């Protein structure tokens, strides 16, 4: 029998508009699921049931004709994102009691659109790693197989959506932090073009690498949440690309990108690393579907290569230098301390030179792929990784190197600022999700979303669910996560 969480975000909103469900109904249903399996999958750092119930009552009081496409739908906010009056730890014990006085712009927009946040989702400490295993919450685990990581830094958001705790979630992506968890957990993770979503009210843009973005089960849900987030804000450091007529949801529903030339490659860009056959097979499937849809798929060299890594890692070290109370530095994780120590050694001159060299490389990469409308490659070099695998050596330098080799594709498109989406087009031999990365030209988010929606239609949808989806209480959950299969 169908349950409310079986509905997509847009279907939940439509059911409310028809009077079949209320926001209060949906919030109570999803809160019960959070209570049942939220800690099992490590989805939340902080759950806010009282705030959610109050917001749901307010959402139900709004006339139907005044509601947007996602009005009253449950969601969640990443624990890196400022949320007024709600504990926001940035994934760190150093901020265990921090309560921001203001909302980030994206949180304001999510509230204004009538979505209801159930709380703050698990993230890596200060967003520094591609796994979410810290000291402030249980590790974010993949609902498809609990022994595996849900990724990071938006790992809790992915775990929440993949387990049916919320239908869509806000996340952010500075080096793959939306797309990596999406690939691992069988979701759609969308990194918008640089400047499309405001990073305010704090910060200077962090070299343009990070951006907020949506995470969901379908392209239309993700497009609808992107419409909510992509509100121009005066004073942002990057000029936002113009929105398409009718918004991104309209584009996704039409799914008509027109005939495209799509460059395909599987060679890793940030590391000389063998690529798992399941990851290559997912790209092959995507290429076949795109060709059948009328597009020209051609082999191209990757836009950038491992020579860019020394430049990117300098930026990553400096980004780790977020303000931390000096008396709490010792509470940081070993990886965070290593990155910050290296960042402190980067001079202003070195940083300026690095930014210039990196931009020169971006120009060269753009010329290499100038004849392509989109690029297609694996999201990751391997399909999955166990919880604890990155830190197993106890050496933070080895941890950082393992991350580079595991994810040698995503971060390049944070450097270029291009829109990029991970789509759940593949599976491993034992049925676990495998993502592919589809990337567009800067500012051409509409064409990328239209193509992603077309791919989803071509394969007759990809909204599969792990066995934990049917769990209704903790007694239904196998704690070791062994043997989860699709329902």
Would you write up a description of this structure?
- Helices cover 35% and strands 14% of the residues.
- The protein has 487 residues and is α+β, with helices and mostly antiparallel strands.
- The strands form three sheets. An eight-stranded mixed sheet has the order 6-8-7-12-13-11-9-10, with helices on both faces. The protein has a three-stranded mixed sheet with strand order 1-3-2, sandwiched between helices.
- Helix 4 links the parallel strand 2 and strand 3.
- Helix 2 packs antiparallel against helix 3 (49-60).
- It is globular, with a radius of gyration of 21 Å.
- Residues 473-487 have low confidence and may be disordered.
Largest sheet: 8 strands, mixed
The Rg value, from CA coordinates, equals 21 Å
| Sheet/helix structural class | alpha+beta
Count of helix runs: 15
N-C termini distance: 13 Å
Mean pLDDT value: 95
The total of beta strands comes to 13
């Amino acid at each position: 029998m169908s349950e409310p969480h079986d509905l997509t975000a847009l279907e939940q909103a439509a059911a409310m508009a028809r009077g079949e469900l209320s926001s209060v109904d949906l919030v109570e249903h999803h809160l019960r699921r959070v209570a049942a399996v939220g800690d099992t999958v490590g989805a939340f750092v902080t759950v806010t049931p009282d705030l959610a119930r109050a917001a749901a009552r307010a959402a139900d009081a709004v006339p139907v004709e005044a509601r947007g496409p996602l009005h009253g739908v449950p969601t969640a906010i990443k624990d890196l994102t400022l949320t007024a009056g709600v504990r926001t730890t940035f994934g760190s014990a150093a901020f265990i009691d921090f309560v921001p006085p203001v909302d980030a712009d994206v949180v304001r927009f999510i509230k204004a659109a009538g979505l209801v946040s159930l709380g703050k989702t698990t993230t890596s400490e200060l967003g520094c790693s591609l796994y979410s295993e810290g000291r402030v919450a249980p590790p974010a685990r993949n609902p498809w197989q609990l022994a595996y990581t849900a990724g990071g830094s938006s790992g809790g958001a992915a775990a929440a959506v993949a387990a049916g705790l919320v239908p869509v979630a806000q996340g952010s992506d500075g080096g793959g932090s939306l797309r990596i968890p999406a690939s691992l957990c069988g979701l759609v993770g969308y990194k918008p073009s640089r400047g499309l979503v405001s990073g305010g009210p704090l910060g200077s843009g962090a070299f343009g690498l990070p951006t907020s973005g949506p995470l969901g089960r379908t392209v239309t849900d993700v497009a609808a949440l992107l419409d909510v987030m992509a509100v121009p804000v005066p004073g942002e450091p990057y000029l936002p690309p113009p929105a398409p007529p009718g918004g991104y949801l309209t584009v996704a529903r039409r799914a008509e990108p027109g005939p495209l030339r799509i460059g395909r490659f599987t060679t890793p860009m940030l590391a000389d690393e063998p690529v798992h056959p399941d990851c290559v097979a997912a790209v092959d499937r995507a290429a076949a579907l795109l060709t059948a849809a009328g597009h020209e798929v051609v082999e191209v060299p990757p836009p950038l290569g491992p020579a860019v890594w020394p430049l990117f890692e300098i930026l990553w070290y400096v980004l780790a230098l977020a303000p931390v109370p000096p008396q709490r530095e010792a509470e940081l994780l070993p990886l965070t301390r290593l990155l910050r120590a290296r960042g402190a050694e980067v001079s202003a001159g070195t940083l300026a030179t690095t930014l210039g060299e990196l931009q020169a490389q971006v120009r060269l990469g753009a010329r290499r792929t100038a004849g392509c409308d989109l690029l297609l490659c694996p999201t990751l070099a391997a399909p999955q990784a166990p919880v604890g695998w990155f830190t197993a050596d106890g050496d933070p330098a080895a941890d950082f190197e393992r991350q580079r080799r595991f994810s040698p594709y995503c971060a390049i498109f944070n450097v270029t600022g291009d829109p990029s989406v991970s789509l759940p087009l593949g599976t491993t031999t034992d049925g676990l999700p495998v993502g592919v990365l589809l990337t567009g030209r800067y500012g051409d988010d509409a064409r990328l979303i239209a193509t992603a929606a077309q791919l989803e239609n071509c394969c007759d949808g990809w909204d599969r669910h792990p066995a934990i989806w049917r769990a209704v209480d903790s007694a239904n959950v196998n704690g070791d996560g062994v043997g989860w299969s699709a329902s």
